[in-house]
Amino acid sequence: MSSHHRMFQHRSALWWVEARTLASDRVFPRHSHDQLGVGIMVSGAHRSWSGIGNVEAHAGDIIMVNPGEMHDGMPLGGGPREWRMLYFDLAVVTDLVEAEGVTGIEVVRPAVSDRLLATRFAALFECVIDKAPDPLLLEESLLRLIMRISRYYGLRPPPARDPSPPVKKALARLDGDAASPIRLTELAELAGVSRFQLLRAFVSEVGATPHAYLVQRRVYLARRLLADGRPIVEAAMDAGFADQSHLTRAFVRQFGVTPGRYVAARA
Questions:
Q1: What is the average pLDDT across 64-91?
Q2: Considering Cα of 237, then 243, then 246, then 251, what sign does the dihedral take?
Q3: C-alpha dihedral (259, 1, 10, 245), degrees to nearest 10
Q4: Domains in the chain, start-ordered, CATH in brackets?
Q5: Does the predicted model carry a pTM greater than 0.85?
Q6: CA-to-CA distance for 35 and 86, rounded, in angstroms?
């Protein structure tokens, strides 16, 4: 059991940006986000698996993760690490970079040491969590951060990564109806391969098991329902969870915050 874990979801001045502060000695299993994540290591050090392999981030470093990119995380040095994160809605950021002639998004450096980028991140973070930010300063800070990432760290079109036909069929089923229960046998029959073949291919190509992927899709669905004002217990049931406690555990694993705190931060 972890001896230290604290996560705070800030109220955000922008509906399409989520701001969090975390301090934890926990090891996080592989997972992904449906947003572009940009953050800074405040103290301690962190190692994570990414699309380019294992990377390390130390105090002052900027960390970035692409939407849908599998990653994990563990502390280095035996103590907790603290970091701040901003999560940007993919569609809105895409519109921003397309205005600069860039189509699509993929950050190619998961961890970088860049003092100017760190300064720009800090400026935007303070604006986002300000209860009454200056609109001009907020807009400038946002664009200056995105422009530097785009120029130096590869906001560029992602390469084609089409899954194999069996995995593609399984993903279509899980994405299309995440709330409904399904067995591995059914997925394998749909994909036209054996259960073992599907499981092996799915983990290799997606980076997670079908069950872990399904739970993530259900958490994303529950988050959308909560953002639309649905009560937590209803969101849990409609997203396919057995009850509110199952949603809460999955929500905390995915976002580091309970559904109740998430709702309160959006109020």
A1: 90
A2: positive
A3: 0
A4: 5-152 (2.60.120.10), 165-266 (1.10.10.60)
A5: no
A6: 9
